[in-house]
């Protein structure tokens, strides 16, 4: 299954109503179940949350109403809005651009800055916006199912998206109390275009919380065909009156199933009653007999895809080409899932970062972490360098991907990375960027900061932004364990290069005495703030080489405060 699967959200809510050994048994079973969309369909079809959500809709007498299930789960149900449904059937609503409606800015991303939503959803969301925000503040810390049918599903989806955004903001500020909702809609037509689909799909936790239940005979659900600009997102559970049901996350499969439904539903504009389908599903889940396939010698994966379309009675309308493409996409998805697993990746990152910290500390007194790495020459040192290549590569790939994903998110509210991630990202930057700088200058290049990798720039920017929001910290009494400016060694290297140019009288160089003066000021400020790690002053380090050459060149005309500090050996007691 894809990362952030809808089954994970159902699992969380199911666990809240399980007790004792039943809870543990269910947990163990689920770990084995979710290996295909066939199994997903069985599981989702068996959960109480879907019939509970539909029951809440039927019992809702106002525009929205809060219910509590017999298991204690809160369900916010939206009405079907008959007047809007009638106007929708008459095609009074077209796609509306988000550019004209600022209240949807929270959905925008860098890749999908603008998108389009059906006008009915826009009007309803704007009309109820103040009421919805008040509800959100009351419910954000509780497990919540948000539901609606038909056009009411539009409002449920948009409220759920806003809810997800507010959870992101709270989590980025360090809060752990906010709970992500599940959104279950019934027969809701597709809401927006491919850019809305893309903006939601960029956030796995958002995408995986949406389930649209679609009956084969529900005309409204298949109102838009694959030839329209509308695109689906989340999971679709298709069902029939006989209890046949299948869950799809593959977008092309969803569109094909919706297209297959159109001809049988033409002209039927009544609001569909889902009670019969839901009751039949529960009965069929209890006894699911053997399935027959008309094809032989098919792979288990292909057989599962065929079974899904057969279950909902649309197999004859599905091309073999679509089934083949679905099979290829699922193979690719299964492989990518093995690489994803965010919790494992986070733990692996911490292990590799801890290893790099150990590597750094064991080399501080042997000539400095930076210079030992940069000046590799003999066999022993080469071997020492080799042992960090693997963790170095893993950490770089991990943080580049993490930063890229975070940078795509909306920029108006909330920190860019959750605080614990930002803390780890700052440590990564301060440990690993000096190694990138060493490789850069060892290859003979200049001006690293102008060519600095983007992910380091963004990690530093977000760290500085977060620091501004904190209360001013007390004056540091001890030296930093990690040099705070991860570009410190780039400044040292540039100072060495410019000093060499000055001494050699290089007419082609743009270097002036001002460059050295600026570095003096920068260095002295870092010393006074104790933002440098003590190992920068190890004898033979690049910094000490610069000082020796610089003092020889400038003599008593260099910065008097810095000269006193260095000449009197103040750096020896820097700690």
UniProtKB/TrEMBL annotation:
GO terms for biological process, alphabetical: defense response; lipid metabolic process
Main location: cytoplasm
Record-annotated Fungal lipase-type domain positions: 123-223
Signal peptide limits: none
GO CC terms: cytoplasm; nucleus
Pfam families: EDS1_EP (PF18117), Lipase_3 (PF01764)
Keyword vocabulary terms for this entry: Cytoplasm, Hydrolase, Nucleus, Plant defense
Compartments in which it is found: Cytoplasm; Nucleus
Keyword Ion transport listed: no
Domain EDS1 EP: 356-562
GO molecular function: carboxylic ester hydrolase activity
Protein name: Uncharacterized protein
């Amino acid at each position: 299954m894809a990362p952030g699967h809808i089954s994970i959200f159902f699992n969380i809510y199911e666990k809240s109503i399980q007790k004792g050994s039943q809870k543990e048994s269910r947990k163990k079973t689920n770990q084995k179940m979710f290996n295909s969309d066939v199994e997903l369909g069985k599981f989702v079809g068996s959960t109480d949350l879907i019939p509970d959500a539909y029951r809440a809709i039927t019992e809702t007498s106002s525009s929205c109403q809060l219910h509590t299930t017999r298991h204690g789960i809160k369900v916010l149900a939206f009405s079907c809005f008959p007047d809007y449904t009638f106007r929708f059937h008459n095609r009074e609503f077209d796609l509306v651009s988000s550019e004209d409606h600022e209240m949807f800015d929270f959905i925008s991303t860098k890749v999908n800055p603008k998108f389009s939503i059906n006008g009915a959803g826009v009007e309803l969301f704007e009309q109820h916006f103040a009421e919805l925000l008040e509800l959100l503040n009351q419910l954000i810390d509780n497990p919540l199912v948000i539901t609606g049918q038909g056009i009411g599903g539009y409002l449920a989806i948009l409220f759920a998206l806003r809810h997800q955004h507010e959870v992101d903001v709270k989590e980025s500020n360090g809060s752990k109390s906010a709970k992500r909702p599940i959104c279950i809609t019934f027969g809701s037509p597709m809401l927006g275009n491919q850019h809305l689909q893309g903006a939601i799909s960029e956030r796995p936790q958002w995408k995986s919380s949406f389930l649209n239940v679609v009956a084969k005979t529900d005309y409204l659900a298949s109102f838009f065909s694959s030839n329209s600009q509308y695109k689906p997102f989340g999971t679709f559970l298709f069902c029939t009156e006989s209890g046949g049901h299948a869950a799809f996350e593959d977008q092309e499969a969803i569109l094909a199933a919706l297209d297959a439904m159109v001809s049988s539903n033409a002209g039927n504009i009544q609001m569909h009653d889902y009670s019969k389908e839901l009751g039949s599903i529960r009965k069929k889940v209890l006894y699911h007999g053997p399935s027959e396939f008309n094809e032989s010698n098919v792979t288990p994966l292909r057989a599962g895809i065929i079974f899904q379309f057969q279950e909902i009675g649309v197999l004859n309308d599905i091309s073999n080409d679509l089934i083949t493409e679905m099979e290829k996409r699922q193979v690719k998805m299964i492989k990518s899932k093995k690489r994803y697993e965010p919790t494992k990746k986070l733990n692996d990152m911490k292990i590799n970062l801890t290893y790099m910290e150990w590597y750094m500390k064991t080399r501080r007194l042997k000539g400095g972490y930076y210079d030992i790495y940069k000046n590799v020459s003999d066999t022993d040192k080469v071997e020492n360098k080799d042992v960090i290549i693997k963790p170095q590569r893993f950490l770089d790939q991990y943080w580049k991907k993490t930063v890229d994903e975070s940078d795509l998110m909306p920029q108006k509210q909330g920190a860019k990375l959750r605080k614990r991630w930002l803390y780890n990202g700052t440590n990564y930057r301060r440990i690993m960027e000096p190694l990138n700088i060493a490789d850069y200058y060892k290859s003979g290049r200049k001006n690293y900061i102008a060519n600095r990798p983007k992910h380091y720039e963004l990690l530093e920017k977000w760290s500085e932004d977060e620091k501004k929001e904190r209360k001013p910290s007390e004056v540091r009494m001890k030296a930093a364990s990690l040099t705070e400016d991860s570009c410190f060694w780039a400044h040292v290297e540039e100072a060495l290069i410019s000093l060499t140019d000055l001494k050699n009288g290089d007419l082609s160089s743009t270097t002036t005495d001002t460059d050295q003066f600026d570095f003096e000021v920068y260095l002295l400020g870092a010393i006074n703030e104790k933002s440098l790690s003590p190992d920068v002053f190890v004898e033979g380090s690049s910094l000490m080489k610069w000082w020796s050459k610089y003092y020889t060149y400038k003599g008593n005309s260099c910065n008097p405060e810095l000269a006193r500090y260095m000449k009197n050996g103040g750096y020896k007691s820097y700690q």
